[in-house]
Specification:
five-stranded mixed beta sheet, binds zinc ion, five-stranded parallel beta sheet, TIM Barrel, alpha/beta
Length: about 450
């Protein structure tokens, strides 16, 4: 050995192993823990992450931190499970004109716009999403690339292409027209074979009843749920008659839900079949704020992952858009319908309808949560449970993910300050861990 290097080598040998070994795990130390179970928040928490799992959870002075773990201070922060958003549209990036979006970018959804939304969600601390209308091949290919670690993104569940009544439907890349009941069976099976997690139906009308019945029967025989778009009373009646599992949206075109619909809801639940409903109120309740102050739409993070031509196109469309405010009654209508459905035993699922105008992936989820807490009066700890543990349980993976508890997959975020008072603390998380890897 070189005479000059020998003392240095001896010094290195004398150093404790921790100084130059790779960390074998992370220790998140100091923050307030909201674990997603609905439990009381715990101050001065310690969360140990090893490999892809949460290894242990405790508090300072009680849970020892292994010496070879990398210490990550969460002082002044809130530590939470990664959020879920079970109603998203990754192919959109907030452009106000769907027709223009489809005709310009359909061949770039798989390589550009869906991965951009996936990246924005992950950076926003949303570690699992469910996409409810997107070309099946596109979303399945992006999901494979994320799972293989080729591109960053949340865990993706999806309905793939939405099934719609055939005939007059003009070409849209995210729907699959159904011509008759036999075609409904065939296409439902094709979707399930392609790997979708749920079947989505759009624009069901009275003439589509037999087709929708066939879709539900075929999906249920394969153990797959069916969800229907439900902004109009006609859509709701057809969907409830067919026995769909979950309804999307709350319509604001009528002031109340008619008694016959509420009776159908009540009878079904009384008969022992739960009914799930994903209201997506943020796109409505946040519209006045957007109209008053569209500046936040200019935030560069809303365009993360997009090439310059698409970013420019969206920015121009936003600057030319007419910001219409809603009648004051819209908020009252939503509150009344949510209350009426809740009284009849509906189980609400969480979702933001991300991708539509004013709801880019980097913002949609926390804005939806904020609308529930500050407009509809939901308890914030319950809201976090709803957007984490409850969403995971509904998707059938509640034993694997959704809370910050030992043994679960380490989808964990930390935000500065407290979402118990300000949901906007979730706007830019300080840290995001996905399957135990720190990605932000
Ligand atoms: Zn939607």
């Amino acid at each position: 050995m070189n005479r000059l290097l020998a003392p240095l080598f001896a010094l290195l040998l004398a150093m404790p192993a921790t100084l130059y070994a790779q960390p074998v795990g992370y220790a998140l130390v100091g923050g307030l823990l909201i674990d997603g179970s609905g439990a009381e928040p715990m101050p001065n928490s310690i969360v140990l992450i090893r490999d892809d799992r949460i290894e242990a959870v405790g508090s300072i002075g009680r849970l020892p931190v292994p010496q070879d773990y990398q210490l990550v201070s969460t002082e002044g922060m809130t530590v939470m499970p990664g959020l879920w958003d079970p109603h998203v549209h990754l192919l959109y990036n907030g452009h106000p004109d769907f027709g223009h979006w489809f005709s310009s970018y359909a061949d770039r959804f798989a390589d550009v716009t869906i991965p951009a939304s996936a990246l924005q969600f992950l950076m926003a601390g949303v570690t699992s999403v469910r996409d409810l209308a997107v070309n099946t091949d596109d979303i399945i290919s992006v999901r494979k690339r994320i799972t293989a670690g080729e591109i960053p993104g949340p865990t993706i569940y999806t309905a793939g292409s939405a099934l719609v009544p055939g005939g007059a439907a003009s070409y849209r890349p995210h729907v699959m027209p159904v011509e008759n009941p036999r075609d409904a069976v065939r296409k439902t099976r094709a979707q399930i074979n392609a790997g979708v997690d749920i079947i989505k139906v759009l624009q069901a009308n009275e003439g589509f009843q037999e087709e929708l019945n066939a879709i539900v029967e075929t999906a249920h025989a394969a153990g797959i749920r069916v969800t229907a778009h439900g902004r109009t009373d006609e859509e709701l009646r057809v969907a409830l008659r067919a026995g769909v599992d979950e309804i999307q949206h709350i319509g604001i075109d009528t002031p109340t839900l008619p008694e016959d619909i509420l009776d159908m809801v009540q009878q079904r639940i009384a008969g022992g079949t739960p009914l799930y409903w994903n209201p997506t109120v943020g796109t409505v309740l946040n519209r006045d704020e957007l109209a008053a102050d569209p500046e936040w739409l200019d935030d560069p993070k809303n365009f993360a992952g997009l090439p310059q031509d698409i970013e420019l196109d969206i920015r121009q469309a936003i600057s030319n858009a007419e910001f219409t405010t809603l009648p004051r009654s819209a908020s009252d209508i939503i509150k009344r319908k949510v209350q009426n459905l809740g009284e009849r035993g509906v189980i609400f699922t969480f979702g933001s309808d991300e991708g539509t105008f004013g709801h880019p992936a980097s913002e949609a989820t926390w804005r939806e949560l904020e609308a529930w807490v500050f407009e509809l009066g939901m308890d914030p700890v319950a809201a976090i449970k709803w957007a984490t543990a409850d969403s995971a349980a509904y998707m059938g993976v509640g034993d694997e993910v959704g809370t910050v508890t030992p043994g679960k997959l380490a989808d964990v975020i930390a935000v500065k300050g407290s979402p118990l008072r300000h949901f906007s603390t979730l706007r830019e998380p300080a840290m995001v861990f996905k399957n135990g890897k720190r990605v932000r």
